[in-house]
Amino acid sequence: MLTLGNGVCGMASIAVAVSVNLPWENDQKLFIAGVLIFIGMVFDALDGSAARMTNQSSQFGAELDSLCDAITFGAAPAVILWRYSDVFPHRLSWAIGVVFTLCVLMRLARFNVETEEDDPHDGFEGLPSPAAAGTIAAFVISIPHLHSLATPDYGDRIQSLALNGLVAFQYVVPLTALALAYLMVSRFRYPHVVQQWLRGRKAPHQIGQALFAIGGVFLFNELALPLALCFYAFSVPLRYLAERIGLMRPAAPKPVVGGETESSPSDG
């Protein structure tokens, strides 16, 4: 049921985004469509945790989960992209949405093929599709807040920044979607944030990241969502680039278990 709840959220997100009968402005419809993607993420997380806790995972459940993920984290964000940004030619916007969806499908297919039943769930190979979809959803969720700041009530400087932000988002969101599409099918290693917090003692940098996230929520409100998710998505490749050009020292290798370096699994 949790898995199907994820799929229902994806279908509802698409329906809201394309509806012409709902009595809301386009930004309000996209806000709700984005929220539905986040609710789908909750169902997806609870579904996996419940299956592992009850030891009731099955091939049927895994395949159904991937199909629902394809709707909520592949098709729904693509529809949001098409409905939101109109600064690029229509065919280019359509192509960006198609590329994003295809990369989600390849990401999910690779996960199904490469993941073993007894894999630890402490990391991902490639950006997880929920994180990629959540990043797109986070941008449209923050748009009403930007509109509220784009008024004289907050002063000329804040109003100007908000208006410029609304224009910039029209370009940033589609281009970010292309980058996210690549990261999903890449081999970059991403940490499983939830599992790291649920297991064992917390490293100082994890506590620092949590405090940074909490501070961002209080300071930026809804704008903290795209900031946090972009940090998660792009910090890994940026760190890799910094290590390659000598700006950062390479991370220490993971502990050796049974003669082989401990590896992280991929995930959808």
From TrEMBL:
Catalytic reaction equation(s): a CDP-1,2-diacyl-sn-glycerol + L-serine = a 1,2-diacyl-sn-glycero-3-phospho-L-serine + CMP + H(+)
Enzyme class: transferase
Major localization listed first in the record, in broad terms: membrane
GO cellular component, one term: endomembrane system
PROSITE patterns with a match to the protein in the record: CDP_ALCOHOL_P_TRANSF
GO molecular function, one term: CDP-diacylglycerol-serine O-phosphatidyltransferase activity
EC number: 2.7.8.8
Domain of life the protein comes from: Bacteria
Keywords: Lipid biosynthesis, Lipid metabolism, Membrane, Phospholipid biosynthesis, Phospholipid metabolism, Transferase, Transmembrane, Transmembrane helix
An example Gene Ontology biological process: phospholipid biosynthetic process
Transmembrane segments: 7-24, 30-46, 91-109, 130-148, 168-190, 211-234
Compartments, record wording: Endomembrane system
Recorded topology in the membrane: Multi-pass membrane protein
Similarity comment: Belongs to the CDP-alcohol phosphatidyltransferase class-I family.
Name recorded for this polypeptide: CDP-diacylglycerol--serine O-phosphatidyltransferase
Species of provenance: Roseimaritima ulvae
Lineage, uppermost ranks: Bacteria, Pseudomonadati, Planctomycetota, Planctomycetia, Pirellulales
